[in-house]
């Protein structure tokens, strides 16, 4: 009998043999730089809950998001596929965008739902709303959604800090006010920035309580609005940081993280819950001291230099993940197959999945199975292909371009908008182990770097032979008719798009 049990355990998922199907929580910060957290070296940030997560978990030093801007990075996180395969390029979706993540794309939520999971998202979606709300999360495998469907600077924004401190600009006055959706209904418009984190926290913890009470496995995608511009904070965190407004916003994000961990522990599910924290792209350096920090990495949001796409990442699962840090290469893409393996859910076999299972790195201290990573710019083009490739410790830039997300006086000329799109032949080659700031290009006309570059060229050719570029979803354009509005047909549009009563979150947050 004992031998029979051993054989059965060898044939099924190891985690399921050790206990019940694990819960999954993905936490995704917005515009948080590699150098913004105390656990990644920032001297004046405070984030005690993320510090504790880092102390108890595994910190990744070489973790990447697939895009230096929001929407493409989110599509890759949820589908395990580079954005050019899904059509989520160039740039990002806006308020009123006609396009969205195509409904024939399979998200991790959809696969987990098929496997019997309860699935919820709280926070920023940014993968389209569309006509009749066709692209919202509830049409992409999520049972439950509460949040703003895009960046909160895509609406008029007036009050950002308690009690009535104005935002640092008025954002986009021509758009409808920021809508707070519950599933496919607007329940509050405009969203109240001063209470938004409390509302998100109540929704997230309510979802966890709901699922734990039912003894059912769950997947929670917690997509913070923080620390995107304009930063905001409620009464508890306004003026709380010596780092200023960015620090206040980071403190409020960290509090939300803490509320989730408190709920995990109060429900007694910490031994059966895998939590992963990371960010969508690098810091918004255009905002200067209010825009985050990439540490010693070059450039930030909008750039294919390291500061734009290398992000902080922390994995946590007591008793399963050994605390420490890893230099192994991994990416947001890899969470898709890793989570599906952990849960026993099916990995789609009808499409190319770019993610690579990183269970060995997480649970067995093994080398990463990922040897390469592709860097696409904000506005990729099929006739150019990838802009850069990381191969092991080396990175080759085939193209570089500046971005309008930086001020004209930014110290590094390669990051500025005045830096034209430039093809490099031969590519700029860096050793990221020795030179993570990408300041000292290697000579490629002599050994061993000549041979290394030849190998990278082969990796590039092999990868690009697999890529079929999907039609662009963001190029479908923007229409005022698609702007979310709580009172369709009202006048004067879109400023009339408001709810008549203030929404009070229900602590239970039952599915509707």
Topology at a glance:
Layout: H1 2-11, H2 14-18, E1 23-29, H3 48-56, E2 58-64, H4 70-79, H5 83-86, H6 108-114, E3 118-123, E4 144-147, E5 159-161, E6 165-166, E7 180-182, E8 185-188, H7 193-214, E9 218-223, H8 245-266, E10 273-279, H9 306-309, E11 313-316, E12 324-331, H10 335-343, H11 359-364, E13 372-375, E14 388-391, E15 394-400, E16 422-431, H12 449-464
Parallel strand pairs: 1-9, 1-10, 2-12, 3-4, 3-9
Antiparallel strand pairs: 2-11, 4-7, 5-6, 7-8, 10-11, 13-14, 14-15, 15-16
Helix pairs in contact: 7-8
Give the strand tally. 16
Order of helices and strands: HHEHEHHHEEEEEEHEHEHEEHHEEEEH
Distance between the termini: 46 Å
Give the strand content: 15-25%
Question: Helical proportion?
Answer: 10-25%
Supply the helix-strand structural class: alpha/beta
Q: Which shape, going by the Cα principal axes?
A: globular
Assembly level: single chain
Q: Largest beta sheet: what is the strand line-up?
A: 8-7-4-3-9-1-10-11-2-12
How many helix segments?
12
Q: How many strands, what sense, and barrel or not for the largest sheet? A: 10 strands, mixed
Low-pLDDT residue intervals, each spanning 5 or more residues = 1-19, 505-512
Q: What is Rg? A: 22 Å
Mean pLDDT: 93
